[in-house]
Design a protein that fits this description.
Helices cover 0% and strands 33% of the residues. The chain contains no helices and 26 strands. It is elongated.
Length: 236
């Protein structure tokens, strides 16, 4: 166990339990099934191999699970959680928390409404209390919930569905598409100003998004200098 300072603690080839105590700690697991407790402070916790349990507790923590079917609990404050390979249980806890899939070697589908991930490093993942998503280098499908989500597709030709809530949709590299097909009323999307309003677009901001598929109602779609595809499914 660590003390009140900023500790660096690492496990070995056994089944380890490491508690960082107070301070901004760096904790690393070994090859087996480890339990790593960040406790207070802004901690960096790396699980390594095995089926590990990573608990951030207080502070703005970074949890990186590594291989295995891991359990990640962010705890209080604003945490960043990466399950990596394996079927992981990812719980952000309180605060505004982000799940990362940047290391995935294949495209991911992550749905914050259902809390289910498939494909690549998301395969078998279960997500709770996650507000923001950062996708892979491939063509991902990221789906938000009723919270104010940030969905960042990273590279690849991504599809972003913010759903309810005032969302930030970031296409980043590739040719990216924002969908509003589940909106119960018409939407207005202006890619020049990067703002949306009406229906599920209310309060949305869009960055690096080239294409829009709108609702089945009366939509108002405005493109920008890119080669846009603006598709309305119905209405006038």
């Amino acid at each position: 166990a660590g003390g009140a300072g900023d500790d660096q603690l690492a496990g070995n080839n056994g089944t380890d339990r490491i508690d960082g105590g107070e301070g901004n700690d760096q904790l690393g697991g070994g090859a087996e099934d480890d339990q790593l407790e960040g406790n207070a402070g802004d901690d960096l916790i790396e699980g390594g191999e095995g089926n590990d349990q990573l608990n951030g507790d207080g502070g703005n923590d970074i949890l990186q699970a590594g291989l295995g079917d891991d359990t990640l609990n962010g705890g209080a404050d604003n945490d960043t959680l990466s399950g990596d390979g394996g079927a992981d249980a990812i719980d952000g806890g309180d605060g505004i928390d982000t799940a990362l899939y940047t290391a995935s070697t294949a495209a991911v589908t992550v749905n914050l409404l259902t809390g289910i991930g498939t494909g690549g490093d998301a395969e078998g993942d279960r997500l709770v209390s996650i507000e923001h998503l950062l996708g892979s280098l491939f063509s991902d499908l990221l789906i938000g919930n009723a919270e104010s989500n940030t969905l960042n597709g990273d590279l690849g030709d991504d599809t972003l569905i913010g759903g309810d809530g005032a969302d930030l949709l970031i296409g980043d590299g590739g040719t990216d598409t924002a969908l509003y097909t589940t909106s119960g009323t018409g939407v207005t999307i202006n890619l020049l100003t990067s703002f949306g309003r009406g229906g599920e677009a209310e309060g949305d901001r869009l960055q690096g998004v080239e294409n829009i598929v709108a609702s089945g109602f009366d939509d108002d779609l405005v493109g920008d200098a890119a080669n846009n595809q603006l598709i309305g499914l119905g209405g006038k």
